[in-house]
Design a protein that fits this description.
Number of domains: 1
CATH topology: FAS1 domain
Strand order of the largest sheet: 2-1-7-6-5-4-3
Distance between the termini: 30 Å
Low-confidence stretches: none
CATH superfamily: FAS1 domain
Oligomer: single chain
Strand content: 25-35%
Largest sheet: 7 strands, mixed
């Protein structure tokens, strides 16, 4: 899961350098969130790889990318963003302090649960869908990206 990393690039620029995040980049553009994710932040982005989008039911991505579904797409994408610059070590420390679970509040306003499965960080949405962090600590000028293998979906 190679993400093009350059510490001087912002989150959007680093995602654009990654062949594994082309669907996410298209979604960020369609949702009109580029300027937000290029702002000062800092942000922690749990960025689904292309295969995570491909695993959604047929037609889901195409439907979300339509102009009339922009608000729904914005909700899905902001559900993957947490305010602050949380490195993998910060997430793991929070999980340990929380006796095995850390609760992360997203920019969307909902929560994600972070847990450990061996040495792998798992992120679970409110519907019970679980993503695994497949690449961590992609530093950017305005935060950090952690690549995940599943698209998380808000329930509200």
């Amino acid at each position: 899961m190679a993400v093009g990393q350059n510490d001087s690039n912002d989150i959007v620029e680093n995602a654009m350098m990654s062949k594994d995040h082309s669907t996410l980049v298209a979604a960020v553009k369609a949702a009109d969130l580029v300027d937000v994710l290029k702002s000062d932040g800092p942000f922690t982005v749990f960025a689904p790889v292309n295969s995570g989008f491909e695993a959604l039911p047929d037609g889901t991505v195409e439907s979300l990318l339509k102009k009339e579904n922009q608000k729904q797409l914005q909700a899905v994408l902001t559900y993957h963003v947490v305010s602050g610059d949380l490195k993998a070590s910060d997430v793991v420390s929070a999980i340990k302090k929380g006796n095995g679970t850390a609760t992360l509040t997203t920019v969307h306003g909902s929560q994600l649960k972070a847990t450990l499965d061996g040495d792998k960080v798992k992120i679970t949405d409110t519907a019970g869908n679980t993503a695994t962090v497949v690449a961590a600590d992609i530093d950017s000028s305005n935060g950090v990206i952690h690549a995940i293998d599943t698209v998380l979906l808000p329930t509200k």
